[in-house]
Write a structure and sequence with these properties.
Shape: globular
Order of helices and strands: EEHHHEEEHEHEEH
CATH superfamily: Gcn5-related N-acetyltransferase (GNAT)
Strand content: 25-35%
CATH class: Alpha Beta
Radius of gyration: 16 Å
Number of strands: 8
Largest sheet: 8 strands, mixed
CATH topology: Aminopeptidase
Strand order of the largest sheet: 1-2-3-4-5-6-8-7
Number of helices: 6
Structural class: alpha+beta
Number of domains: 1
């Protein structure tokens, strides 16, 4: 296990900051999620067990922190600086999960961004920052992102970043109350030798 060698970590690019999610983020996180219920709800994971709910905010953070300590996840909130005297505001969440070491050295990445800030390049920049960290610092080889075919805004993110579409995964995840198909997108370290963030910023 790598332990504290990989977590916690904070990543920055201009006004955008990815930092560890914290228990004390609860009020702000809940406010952003509540305001974006219609935007995020159709793509949100649900529990397939009858009558079972997803964990509370505290339960989610506890689980994510445990995974981080086990070197299997990097749970970030996406924040944006609003000015020198104001703490960066939460504008989304990004989690690198299912990190596999050994001969695979791969992970899966998921994200959401506040609808009020969509279309400003926040999601692709955050994905590029996290992917570069995984490839260049942690030594991972492959990053995978799985997206509902109908989720066009999220698909635009991976298309802008040059993730390859690898095919359809039937009934891959339980989303909004049912098993849902997902398109799988991937990128390997060899495909971005100059860094994904560098390539993305050069196209803007």
């Amino acid at each position: 296990m790598l332990g504290s060698a990989i977590w916690p970590v904070t990543l920055e690019c201009g006004d955008l900051v990815l930092r560890p999610i914290r228990y004390r983020d609860r009020a702000e996180w809940n406010e952003v999620r509540s305001r974006n219920a219609d935007w995020i709800g159709p793509w949100e994971a649900t529990n397939p067990l009858s009558g079972a709910d997803l964990p509370s905010y505290a339960g989610m953070v506890r689980s994510l922190n445990q995974q981080a300590r086990q070197d299997t996840a990097l749970p970030f909130v996406i924040t944006e600086r609003q000015g020198s005297r104001v703490p960066p505001a939460i504008v989304g969440q990004l989690t690198v999960s299912t990190i596999i070491w050994g001969s695979a050295r791969m992970a899966t990445l998921g994200y959401w961004v506040d609808a009020d800030r969509a279309g400003r390049g926040i999601a692709p920049t955050a994905v590029a920052m996290a992917t570069d960290h995984c490839f260049r610092v942690l030594g991972l080889h492959r990053m995978e992102i799985n997206i509902r075919p109908e989720n066009r805004p999220s698909r635009r993110v991976v298309e802008k970043l040059g993730f390859r579409e690898e095919g359809l995964r039937r009934r891959y995840l339980h989303i909004a109350g049912r098993w849902a198909d997902h398109l799988s997108f991937a990128l390997t370290a060899e495909e971005v030798p100059e860094g994904l963030l560098h390539r993305w910023l050069a196209t803007r």
